Amino acid sequence: MYGRIRCLKKFLTPYFGEAGRFVIKKNMASIGMLQRIFKIGFNRAAQIMDQLAKTHVVGEEIGTSPRRVLMNLTILNSF
Predict the structure, then answer these.
(1) Which of 61, 75, 73 has the alpha carbon at shortest distance from 22?
(2) What is the phi/psi pair of residue 61, to 5°?
(3) Contact status, residue 34 vs residue 48, Cβ threshold 8 Å
(4) Largest CA distance in the chain
(5) CA within 13 Å, CB half, 26
(6) CA 41 to CA 78: how far, in whole Å?
(7) What distance in Å separates the CA atoms of residue 41 and residue 69, rounded to the nearest whole number?
(8) Exposure of 73 by Cβ count < 10 A (0-12 exposed, 13-18 middle, 19+ buried)?
(9) Beta-carbon count within 10 A of 57 CB
(10) Which residues have CB under 8 Å from 78's CB, separation 6+?
(11) What is the 3-state secondary structure (H, E, C) of the chain?
């Protein structure tokens, strides 16, 4: 599963690592939170959130609730 991150690394946005660390520290993730923290638009925040979900940093969306964090910092930093 985590080998996927290495394969996808060249396609990830520049904010991916920073966003991943941020949501893990907060233990929740939402598009709105990424927009506010990184001062980016909805489309870019949604793209980052999709990448975080595809690499199993966060879970899938559940309605309007913040997404669950699935990975810890040790695993994320190992990539």
Answers:
(1) 73
(2) -70, 145
(3) yes
(4) 31
(5) 17
(6) 29
(7) 22
(8) exposed
(9) 24
(10) 2
(11) CCHHHHHHHHHCCCCHHHHHHHHHHHCCECHHHHHHHHCCCHHHHHHHHHHHHHCCCECCCECCECECECCCHHHHHCC
Which structure tokens are listed for 42? 């909805």
Q: How far is CA 73 from CA 19, 42, 66, in A?
A: 12, 25, 19
Read off the pLDDT band of 79 (50, 70, 90).
low
CA 62, CA 79: separation in Å to the nearest integer? Answer: 27
For residue range 13-51, what is the model confidence (pLDDT) as tens digits? Answer: 888 889 999 999 999 999 999 999 999 999 999 999 999
